[in-house]
Structures are given as structure tokens and as C-alpha cells.
Amino acid sequence: MKISIVGTGYVGLVTGTCFAETGVDVVCVDIDEKKIENLKKGIIPIYEPGLEEMVQRNAGKNKLFFTTSIKESLKDSDVIFIAVGTPPDEDGSADLQYVLGVAGEVGQYMDHYMVVVTKSTVPVGTAEKVRKAVKDAQEKRGVNIPYDVASNPEFLKEGNAIEDFLRPDRIVVGVDSEEAEKVMTRLYKPFILNNHPLLFMDITSAELTKYAANSMLATKISFMNDISNLCDIVGADVTMVRKGIGSDSRIGNKFIYAGAGYGGSCFPKDVKALIKTSFEKGHPLSILQAVEDVNDRQKEVLVKKIMKHFKGEIKGLTFAMWGLSFKPNTDDMREAPSIVIIQKLIEAGAKVKVYDPVAMHECQRKIGDIVTYAKDANEALIDVDGLILVTEWNEFRIPNYKVLEKLMKQKNVFDGRNIYEPKEMKENGFVYYGIGRPEIN
Q1: 3-class SS string, 311-329
Q2: Would residue 266 show up in a list of annotated catalytic residues for this protein?
Q3: Are residues 114 and 190 in the same domain?
């Protein structure tokens, strides 16, 4: 079986590589010539544990190919996945120009039946727009080649994407024909044999499922963050509250960790897009709007704690920031809390020294030289007035207090992920601030 994947970003590259791992012949397509040339050399454009080795292995076995030509990729392909970006417009809606552009090219070059699958996260109704784009392109050619459209949303967690793809909780596929279901069943046969649930449904439901899933997870995060702010006011400890509610099987213990706000490529964009869709359909999702509002405020919570500690005056002070990516095991800084915190501190006249195990180049690309880049975690601590923990990388979890004491000018720690114990911090002479945790100073 042969498939094509258009788009070699996070979703497209992981999808194509993992399908190749199951024995499918895969051609990945991208208009970025430099990116394709690097991929042919085994150099991948993103950081994802295990992905580089898998790309190199399957390319070496002639199961995974890379090209800039959609026309070339369509030859003998049974399925073509559209996995290009859907960035948010100014109004929060998903920009479908790249998705529909690919669909038009498929209609322009296809010469046999295939299933055209939207893998990108797209709003309800996109499949019909894709169907029309393919049809319009065929009509311009004067041909009528049969095809089907399907929706196959991804549910990948950055930093754990390979495991998520190869051992999924569920595989959701929206189809409206028996032939499309037959083709997609064959493609996902290895997963069915391993007892991973393959859920077929109508296309509209599949499109909405992805947005609903991410929005539910974002809701849990924002709810817990809002509870953490109440904990700060009343003197409760959010980590105890989390344990108390997480032991209820109806709630569960996942995605209820308080922190400095969510970020990344999915949650912020998908929440905005679903809010926009609901508004357009005359049914505003007020709960989801609150989720977004809480998250926007949460990204400034650490800055407020810093300003309170220093009585509103931080001009001339220097802070170390450990962690830049929106979560561990990725270099993704899209909508990351670190960016907001850095900007607020710089605006207030402070200086910031940063360190992240993998996101330093991405930070340089995004914000340039408004911060100082340290070569390691310890260098970032030299002569700083406070340490700000933003991303809970493993290497930050057990700090050497003697080293911190020796390097830091002032022993203040602002923990945006609650990975340190307040009592332990105090015993070692540090002033500690967490998220929704009583101050022990």
C-alpha cells in the first residue's frame, strides 16, 4: 500500500514516518526545498524523541521518501493525507488556504481513485470544501475521476508522538462511503491487530471530535489554574486539592496540574477555532471562552508574584529562566508562557538569562537577543535575583541547593510548575513561590 503525506511539519512527518514503520510505502511532500533536502539526508526540522532515528531507518529501507512534487507523490497512491498548517486568522478562525490549495493540486494531478484525507486540524465543514476544491480542479481539466474525502484527526502529544501514533488510545476516521472505509481499514490494519480501537463515524463528527477533545483537556487545565488562584487567596495548597479530586475515577488525575498556563501548537489554536465556530453557528460556547480568558491571565501569574515580592520594582534586577518550550521533550514555543513572562519582565526593566535543553535556537528565532542565552542551567544562575522555573524538564527537578546558593545573588525561586517542595526550599534558605501553594517564608 502506498500513501502520500502533504506537509512535513509535526503532524505530517510523524504520521508519514510511523506509517512507514508499519510497512506502508510513504512519500512525504513539502514546498520547502531546503527542508526536503535535509530530510533526504536524515536531518529533521523538529525535536521529537526517537523521530530522527525512525526517519533515517525507514528512508534507508526505501519505505519513506521525500519530494517537493505533489504530482510525483500521487503516482500509485491509495491515500493522500493533507497535513499542512491551519494557522489562526486574526479572528481566531482556522486559515484553510493551505489545505484547500493542496486539495486543488490533488484534483489537478490525480489520475486514479484515491481517498483524500484531512489530517490537519480543521473546523466542521472543511471536508466539503476539500471535496469541492478537488472537483473544481477536475472540471477545469475536463475529467471526472472518482475519489472520496475522509477526516482522520490526529491526537498526538508533543514529546510522546511516536508512542501515541503507534499505540493510540483510539483512531478516529470520518467517512461517507463504504469504499473509503474499506481503504482506511486496510491502512490501519496493523493497529486493529494490536487491539487499538478504530472508530468510524460521519465526517462532521470526526472533525468536531478533535476540537472537542483538545478543548476538554484545555478546560481541565484552566479550571485547575483558576482553583490554584483561589488557593493563593484562601491559603489552601492546590497540590493537595489535586490529589483529593484526582482520586475520583470520574475526574481522574490527568491534566489537573496547576501551572503557568498552557501553550503549544494545538490547545490555544483549537480553543480559539472552536469558539469562533460556535459563535458563527449562533451558539457561543461561554465555558470555552472562559477557558481561554483564564489561560491568558495565568501566563502572567508568575510575573505578578515576582512584582509582589520585589514591591513592584524590578528595574535593574536579573532573573534566570529554566525552560522555554511550552512543555518538556519538545522545542515548540508556540504560545509558550515563557514568552509572555520574558516580555513582561523586560518591559519592567529587568534582565533575563535563559536556558532550555532543546529550545534555545527556537527562542533565538522567536525573540532574538532581548535575553541572554546561557550554555547550561548553572550558568543561567550566576548573580541573578531570582530563578523562574517555567518548563518541568527532568534535569531541573532535583536542584543542587549548594550550587544555587553559591551562584545566585538572591535566593528567590518562582516555580511555575510546582515541582519543588516549599518546606525543602525553606530549609535550604530559599524564598519560594509556587502556583496555588501557601508561602513558607
Answers
A1: CCCCCCCEEEEECCCCCCC
A2: yes
A3: yes
